[in-house]
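note to self — DONT lose this again. spent like an hour looking for the file last time. sequence + predicted structure for the chain T wanted, 411 res
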Amino acid sequence: MAPNDSAQTTEGRDFAAGRRKAARYIVPVAVAGVAAATIGLVPALADSGDPDLPKISAQQLIEKIAASDTQQLSGTVKINTDLGIPSLGGMAGSLMPKGETGGDGSSADPQAKLMELASGTHTLRVAADGPDKQRVSILGNAAEYSLIHNAGEVWAYDSASNEAFHAEAPADAKDSGKREKLPEGVPTTPKELAEEALKAADDTTSVTVDGTAQVAGRDAYQLLIKPKQSGSTIGSIRVAVDAENGVPLKFTLTPSSGGKAAIDAGFTKVDFAKPSADTFRFSPPKGAKVTEADELKAHEKDFKKGFDKDFKGHDDLKDFEGLNVIGNGWTTVAEISSPGGEAGFKAPEKGDVPPEAAEFMDALGDKVSGEFGSGTVFKTRLVNALMTDDGKVYVGAVTEEALVQAANAAK
């Protein structure tokens, strides 16, 4: 029979210590990313029966994750993300800075390419051999995008466009200890997602062991994380943890509104043997266009100069009032005050943004009013933001009603 630890374990020093250890020691495997959390799993990961494993408490399972020193693996991760937003692939490309010749930045640039993981279904091949060697490849129907980190050097290659992106550590990297890293941002494995979830676990959270499962042929315990507070858009987070080595194998985030998972990531295949050294070697194919990171940064500087020249409110930024945090735990709302009141934040006009971005804004906007006045709520299945007509923004992983209440309370 599957173990079931029904005790609430989020209170007390032992749990807090275990959580901090977990957040500190979990080593990302196959790092890649951009902004925003996004990952998923398809029915192919259905198990063949819950394994019968020794009973374990939530505290013990968290400590098992923290103690895991597994840094070598390879496998396939299935990703499906349903945040309730339009596809970001086209919009990401249209918003990228352009070079001096008017052409777009490299299609192999990780900051643009990996934004596509923010929506839809994807299959990734991942591999890791310690902190200095990782590889993640996004598999397409007739193309593949790969991001490789090998001892201070990063290569990215888009086979569809035959373009490559290259970055390397500074010349003094060995002496200074500096290392070129893969871009931070979107987690691409259950382990990285679990790390973020554990950071949120405190006395506003219920953490239990909720049975067992089998993922990618491995026996696993299921860690269930749920908010104790009402008003959060997050209903629950379920993490399948390898019973043998403590590595998270599957991550599922279900919204409080119900329906299918918003973020669901897991291995369909996994091997904890040392990957071949060839996995992390890369040379651009003949004829490939190679963009150096320094070259792209120069284009970004030119783009920023042009933006600053046209940005009328630049001088007013000195009046920015900063950030105010309302509430705590899972219902925390950030209040951002803009400079100049009504001259501050405003919803962009359709003609001011690319068509893909306009579609994005139209899909999310919803007019609301309250004691605070009136404004527009931009909604996803997880993160909502209220932009008031007098230039303030309230944002959090909370419902529309909770945002309006926060704005009313702050008035």
